[in-house]
Structures are given as structure tokens and as C-alpha cells.
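Before the break, one more example. Copy the sequence into your notebook; we will annotate it together after we see the structure.
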Amino acid sequence: MDPIKNISIKENQSVKDLVDQFEESGGFSAKMFADGAKIFKQMVNDNECTKFFSFPACIVATGTRGVIKDMVKNKMVDVIITTCGTLDHDLARIWKDYYKGTFLTDDRKLHKEGINRLGNVFVPNESYGIILEEKMKPILQRIYEQKKEWNTRDLIWAFGEAIKNEPNAEESIIYWAWKNKIPIFVPGITDGSFGNQLWLFWQMHKDFKINLLEDEHALSDIVYSAKKTGALMIGGGISKHHVIWWNQFRDGLDYAVQITTAVEWDGSLSGARVREAISWGKVREDAKQVTVPGDATILLPLLYSYVI
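Here is what the structure looks like once it is written out:
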């Protein structure tokens, strides 16, 4: 057995040095995070591995968006699966600001003032639905004139290209996904403001179609052609499940790291530990895998810092 070692903090200490000490400290979530950081780094450095990244939209409303953007910009991941709200927040924040708020507030008062609360982030109406409707309408019209039927990957790339000349384009996840041809798949594309604009556009253009089965075919091509696969999964829901669902058809992920705040005992996919997916064949029995409990707005920046 290896003895527990104390963490020693020094001036100007690097993130890597600190995380390496987490490994030696043997202390609860710190040890699990260190394990996850090492697995993720090995996954990133494995040139034979196709790297999936799934996350919920909520963190894109925070400064963590910058970490995700840098991961896409620096080609740290190969495939993204996320929710419609990621498109909402990523696009809206090109044109308008979100604001620091508080969990402890009067939500009725906020509603009267036209401010939406996302945890402790304040999102005014003019920074969300209003600006998205204003900006998306002309983009959708141009996209529609190119062709009438789109899968979500190509549609998102088309938006990435459409915003390339915006002053804040390089702060956008979508822009860098288009620039680097990293596919973003959104299986629940109608579940958000972006999807609502698609529906409103369809009201006047009934030959405008979103073909989700084309996305599934593209995912099957990615999975079946991969020598190895790995995944970094934030939270759960449809994004996580779509990653592990498709990877069961190649006998499971070779690497799997999940960061989640959810509990295991309610049976939710967000709370389900990665080891549970082994029973379904979605993660290999010999996979390098760990679930790290904690808030991704803290842990994802640390993880990215450790890897670079």
C-alpha cells in the first residue's frame, strides 16, 4: 500500500504540480480528480483515439465557455455532443453580455424586470431570445437559399461560417468548430431558443427540414471507423447518453471521464457512475475510467490547465 502524503502549497506552484499532489494525497474527490486528469491527458495524447466531448448548456452561460472554446480551438476534442442551449448561449454572447447575479434573489422581481436567472447568472431578455431572433432570421434565410434540408452538424457549421466576421466571433465555440471542422451534434435541437427560431422559420418555409437521421449516420461512421474512442462527459442527460449509446456498437469506450454534481442513488444518467455503463457494454471492461464528483465550472478549467 502507498502511504498518504500531505499536500504542500508553494508560491508560483503550477496546476500540474498541484494535481500531481492530489494523486499522492489520497484524499476523496481530489484523488478522483487526479485520476481523471491523468486519464484525460492520456486520451488526448493517444493519436489512435477519437475523442468525444459532451456537456450541458448551462456552463456555456458562464466563463467556462472560454475553456470549451479553447479546447475546440486547440483541437483537443474530435466530436462534440451537446444540447440546444449551448447554441443559444454561445451565439447570444457574441452580441450581448450576460451578468453576474446571485442564487439568493427575488425571482418574481426579476421576471417583472425582464431578467432570466440561470443559477447565479442573470440573462436579460434582450441578451437572449430577443437578440437571437434578430440575428438568426437573416442567417437562416441565407442558409435556406443554399439548401432546404440540413443535419445539425452542417447547420451549426453554417452558423459558424456566418458569424466569422462578427467582432466577437473568436470567442465562440461554434465559430471554432466550423473553423476546425469539429462536428457538433445536437440530438435535441428543438429544445431551446435556437430550435424555436428553426420552428418559427419553418412556419413560412415548409420545405425547410432538419434531418436528425443524417446525424445518426455520421455518428455511426465516426464510431465504426475509430480505432479507439474516449469521452470527457460533463453531467449527463441526452448529451452523455448519445456518446455512450453510439460507443456500445464498437464494444464500448476505451477511455471515459465524467464530471458530475449529481447523485448516483436516484437512477439518473447524470448521477450514474461511468462504471455502470460497463454493464451495458457502453464502456469496455478494461477501459480507463473514472467519475469525478464536483462542479465543472471549477474542475474543467483545472483539467484543461493540467493537460496543457
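The two ends are 31 Å apart (CA to CA). The chain has a mean pLDDT of 97. Try to locate both features in your own notes.
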